[in-house]
Write a structure and sequence with these properties.
Order of helices and strands: HHHHHHHHHHH
Mean pLDDT: 86
Low-confidence stretches: none
Number of strands: 0
Oligomer: single chain
Helix content: over 70%
CATH superfamily: Tetracycline Repressor, domain 2
Strand content: under 5%
Number of domains: 1
Shape: elongated
Number of helices: 11
Radius of gyration: 20 Å
CATH class: Mainly Alpha
CATH topology: Tetracycline Repressor, domain 2
Largest sheet: none
Structural class: mainly alpha
CATH architecture: Orthogonal Bundle
């Protein structure tokens, strides 16, 4: 487990296990009581160990929270990396599988609750908001843009502005994100999620075909 939010990465399995437990316990406490009402003493009381471990690896409660956010973002980013590494030359299949995998992460109950917590905290902390954007959406957009650039160079699609196209493609989650943040049901979307994803991917690919020259 390596993260730029961690001051000093654990070098033993025991240290990594300790950090993982801190992540799990702190996340549950933050979700149950809110970030401001949770103290390091409470986290240590439930996770064991000492506050010295938190100071050593994360520097503070905020450092621990940022590390948790980055770890959760990494799961999202990892799915994009997997899509970019697939051997299949079927771009439609790769993009459909990517949206399906991300959808499962995006609509997970714990992920939804944590997303609400992030919005609540970040709106009063501009530096934190910028950090979260940098290793979350910004990183995801750039990674997907690199993938689309490769697809363009291979002739799979015509994509002269890959970063804009990446932002557009991941806009698939805008409606879902809004629904989850305000606790509106998405059950009506769940029923047809596969058809919906295929529709989005088909329209995306159709919109990235080389324009015919006007005679």
């Amino acid at each position: 487990m390596k993260s730029s939010a961690i001051k000093q990465s654990p070098c033993t399995q025991r240290g990594m296990d300790r950090c993982s437990l801190l992540f799990e316990v702190a996340t549950d406490l933050f979700l149950s009581h809110g970030y401001e009402k949770v103290s390091l003493d409470q986290i240590v009381e439930h996770a064991g160990g000492s506050k010295a471990t938190i100071y050593k690896y994360f520097g503070s409660k905020k450092g621990l929270f940022i590390a948790i956010c980055q770890e959760r973002c990494n799961k999202f980013i990892h799915q994009i990396e997997l899509a970019c590494q697939r051997d299949s030359v079927d771009l439609r299949q790769n993009l459909s599988e990517l949206l399906t995998d991300l959808y499962l992460i995006f609509t997970d109950d714990k992920s939804t609750a944590f997303g609400r917590l992030i919005l609540l905290i970040a709106q009063n902390d501009q530096d934190l908001a910028q950090q979260l954007y940098s290793f979350g959406p910004k990183r995801a957009h750039q990674l997907l843009a690199d993938f689309l650039q490769q697809a363009h160079e291979c002739g799979q699609i015509y994509c002269t502005r890959p970063l804009d196209s990446a932002v557009y493609f991941l806009g698939f989650f805008h409606d879902i994100h809004w629904r989850t943040m305000v606790d509106l049901p998405i059950s009506n979307l769940d029923i047809n999620i596969k058809d919906h994803i295929h529709y989005v991917v088909d329209r995306f690919i159709e919109g990235h075909q080389k324009p015919e020259k006007i005679q």
